[in-house]
Design a protein that fits this description.
Blueprint (H helix, E strand, L loop, with lengths): L3 H5 L3 E5 L8 E5 L2 E7 L14 H15 L7 E4 L6 E5 L10 E5 L8 E8 L5 E7 L2 H13 L9 E3 L5 E3 L26 H14 L2 H6 L5 H17 L18
Antiparallel strand pairs: 1-2, 2-3, 3-5, 4-5, 6-8, 7-8, 9-10
Length: 255
């Protein structure tokens, strides 16, 4: 959990992130820069219950912590200028790195990258969606399966200077029905590593213990049970899953 002063000290707003679909603000708590998403600013969705996107963001952080891979920056619920909302530590990214990219079809890298799909840009040119082939991004892809992330856009992946990759914007997670929509399909069908399987085991065990108890204040019992089923299935199969159902396998827009 965050330090006590981050829970109780004044949260001052310094700007608004206008590209976000829900009300999202940049702020500070003392010298700490944070992102603040008030529940009052969440737009209703047809397939997720109203007023609980912030709770899902916190739940995603708790799962990330149990996995032990630091996928999600520290995230918590607290009061703010517009009421209770999600607060997350701001991350300074490396503008010279892109974990996910659109490139001309003829320019797809031969190594170090995974080719996801092809399409046409607004001028009719053929382009390819690619993402890097790194352990950090693989771990994020496993995390997305576990939390059933319905909105892993390219812009939701933060490239850090040291090569680490953070994932953000996890309001559309933990639905009890299959909802996985992601740009990270490059490892489809590949076997999970021992490290990845051990992470899944930690979540499975946690759902039967402290993690499960912590999630009861954030998710429904059915959603927690569905997370346990996803972990068990992923552990049994031991491979990255394929898209399922009739809905799009990727979010839109991609970035």
């Amino acid at each position: 959990m965050p330090a006590p002063d981050l829970l109780t000290a004044e949260l001052t707003l310094t700007g608004r992130i206008t590209t976000a679909s829900n009300a999202t603000f940049l702020g500070s708590i003392g010298d700490t820069t944070v992102v603040y998403k008030p529940i009052a600013g969440e737009k209703p969705l047809w397939d997720f219950p109203d007023g609980f996107l912030a709770h899902r963001e916190v739940a995603a952080y708790l799962v990330s912590e149990v996995l032990g891979w630091n996928v999600v920056p520290r995230t918590w619920l607290r009061d703010g200028p517009f009421g209770i909302g999600m607060v997350q530590l701001w991350q300074e990214t490396d503008p010279g790195q892109n974990a996910v990219d659109l490139v001309a079809t003829d320019d797809v890298p031969e190594s170090g990258w995974k080719h996801v799909l092809e399409g046409q840009d607004e001028e009719g040119r053929m382009v390819a969606l690619v993402h890097e082939d790194t352990p950090a991004l693989r771990r994020m892809a496993v995390f997305d399966v576990v939390v059933n992330n319905a909105d892993r856009k390219g812009a939701h992946i933060l490239a850090m200077t040291d090569g680490h990759r953070h994932g953000v914007d996890h309001g559309l997670t933990f639905h009890r029905d299959p909802k996985l929509r992601t740009v990270l399909w490059g490892w489809l069908g590949d076997a999970l590593t021992v490290e990845e399987l051990e992470g899944i085991d930690r979540v499975s065990e946690g759902l039967d213990g402290e993690l499960g108890r912590s999630l009861t204040d954030l998710l429904s019992a059915q959603e927690i049970a569905s997370a346990a089923v996803r972990c068990a299935r992923l552990r049994h199969v031991g491979r990255f899953p394929a898209p399922s159902g009739e809905m799009s396998a990727v979010p839109w827009p991609l970035f």
